[in-house]
């Protein structure tokens, strides 16, 4: 437990926010450990089965919703956000180019987990320099932590109907991270005002109908889950709507009116590697396993492994316009050792035998308009 007797908590809180900005975080807020209704919201979501195969979402009981059960003596949570959209990268335009692969914009460069964890550790070390030892633990994404609920309570933004934390001045294309701490810091005002109003653009645009109610995502329908979390076959009903989205999905953010206020990231680590922001599906599908491993080292894409990478790309190729390059790439993998890949390749080849010309589930969907290129 830190000796905080000589501290001015307000000055310390201000200092922590300055340090966070110096370390490249776009904003920092502080909240307590009471997550109010969010425990009930999570329980209802799990009860409805919306987590699909993500067993880790229910494994930790109330540790996820009660920070002091995960890290004893936690009194406050320092919540940070970091913008990730690289400068000059196009987004929505790619969805209208069915021969290209759409990789979610958060995954074009280096894996954010390590980068943000390291920055949070640096933040803690700098706080220690100012006040001496104190208790803390850094988290980003992979721990049983309710990151969005904490972010809303720490003042970063509101829960959009697409379930994203949205800031009215910078949209939602940012990552979240936290320091759990035993410091009795003053807490910030939660972000109470919801700005969605009568807008429903995200719900209209979602290609697979995954936003089943305001702020509620059925992960089993979400392309992000289907392409990253799901281990087995992608259910047939979602293959066409996936279009060329081969790793994650951004549609419900690209159409959000607040996305036009996105702040481009200054982190060079998030810059696209191997032209992943505009690569052809065929080029990526033709990567050998050795190339996949080399090209995705240090990238969030690595964790899905080569077979699921091919699975996703096969779906994209099934939705691409018929061409000799597409057909020969698919034919070359017809007898691929993995049954998962073979089945998706067979499906893709079938699509090219259909009499109808190919159409891609593209953005703008229905009446929704992308608010960022
Ligand atoms: C599991 C998970 C997923 C799953 C499930 C998504 C989901 N909505 O839960 C899948 C794989 C589908 C996914 C996809 C994505 N994810 Co994700 N994901 C997570 C993870 C690990 C847990 C989220 C969680 O707790 N889900 C449980 C449900 C119950 O929570 P929730 O959806 O946030 O719902 C809340 C609201 O409904 C809210 N609520 C508020 N008011 C009200 C009112 C009522 C009446 C109700 C019922 C609910 C409600 O209460 C719920 C609980 O807090 C977090 C990291 C973390 N540890 O927190 C990242 C995280 C949420 N993901 C993130 C990102 C970037 C994405 C993607 C954009 C990635 C991509 N481009 O493909 C998509 C976006 C999909 C979407 N629209 O949500 C970011 C979000 C940053 C932000 N600005 O909000 C996080 C925080 C990771 C990070 N550290 O940056 N993700
Ligand atoms: S990420 Fe894509 S599939 Fe998932 S809810 Fe948003 S628009 Fe729908
Ligand atoms: S698209 Fe509209 S409804 Fe959806 S999150 Fe953005 S403002 Fe809210």
UniProtKB/TrEMBL annotation:
It catalyses: epoxyqueuosine(34) in tRNA + AH2 = queuosine(34) in tRNA + A + H2O. [4Fe-4S] cluster 1 binds at residues 196, 199, 202, 256. Signal peptide: none annotated. The active site is at residue 141. Its EC number is 1.17.99.6. [4Fe-4S] cluster 2 binds at residues 206, 222, 249, 252. Its cofactor is [4Fe-4S] cluster; cob(II)alamin. Cob(II)alamin binds at residues 64, 141, 162, 165, 176, 224, 249-250. Residues 183-216 form the 4Fe-4S ferredoxin-type domain. Transmembrane segments: none annotated. Keywords: 4Fe-4S, Cobalamin, Cobalt, Cytoplasm, Iron, Iron-sulfur, Metal-binding, Oxidoreductase, Queuosine biosynthesis, tRNA processing. Catalyzes the conversion of epoxyqueuosine (oQ) to queuosine (Q), which is a hypermodified base found in the wobble positions of tRNA(Asp), tRNA(Asn), tRNA(His) and tRNA(Tyr). Belongs to the QueG family. Monomer. This is Epoxyqueuosine reductase.
């Amino acid at each position: 437990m830190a000796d905080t007797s000589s501290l001015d908590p307000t000055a310390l809180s201000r200092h922590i926010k300055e340090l966070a900005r110096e370390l490249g975080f776009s904003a920092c807020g502080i909240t307590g450990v009471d997550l109010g209704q969010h425990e009930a919201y999570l329980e209802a979501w799990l009860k409805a089965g919306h987590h699909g195969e993500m067993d880790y979402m229910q494994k930790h009981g109330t540790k996820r919703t009660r920070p002091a059960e995960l890290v004893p003596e936690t009194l406050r949570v320092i919540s940070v956000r970091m913008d990730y959209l690289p400068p000059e990268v196009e987004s929505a335009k790619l969805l209208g180019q069915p021969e290209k692969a759409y990789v979610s914009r958060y995954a074009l460069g280096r894996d954010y987990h390590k980068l943000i964890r390291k920055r949070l550790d640096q933040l803690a070390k700098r706080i220690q320099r100012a006040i001496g030892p104190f208790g803390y633990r850094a988290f980003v994404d992979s721990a049983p932590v309710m990151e969005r609920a904490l972010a809303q309570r720490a003042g970063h933004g509101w829960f959009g109907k697409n379930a994203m934390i949205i800031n009215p001045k910078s949209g939602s294309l940012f990552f979240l991270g936290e320091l759990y701490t035993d410091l009795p810091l003053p807490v910030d005002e939660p972000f109470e005002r919801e700005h969605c109003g009568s807008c429903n653009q995200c719900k209209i645009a979602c290609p697979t109908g995954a936003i089943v109610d305001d702020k509620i995502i059925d992960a089993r329908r979400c392309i992000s889950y289907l392409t990253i979390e799901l281990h087995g076959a992608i259910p047939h009903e979602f293959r066409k709507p996936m279009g060329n989205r081969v790793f994650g999905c951004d549609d419900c953010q690209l159409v959000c009116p607040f996305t036009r206020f996105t702040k481009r990231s200054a982190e060079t680590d998030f810059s696209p590697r191997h032209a992943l922001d505009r690569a052809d599906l065929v080029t990526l599908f033709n990567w050998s396993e050795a190339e996949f491993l080399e090209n995705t080292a240090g990238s969030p894409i690595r964790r899905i492994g080569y077979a699921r990478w091919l699975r996703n790309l096969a779906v994209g190729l099934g939705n691409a316009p018929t061409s000799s390059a597409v057909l020969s790439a698919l034919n070359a993998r017809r007898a691929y050792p993995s049954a998962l890949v073979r089945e998706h390749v067979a499906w893709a080849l079938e699509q090219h035998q259909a009499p109808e010309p190919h159409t891609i589930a593209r953005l703008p969907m229905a009446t929704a308009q992308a608010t960022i290129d």
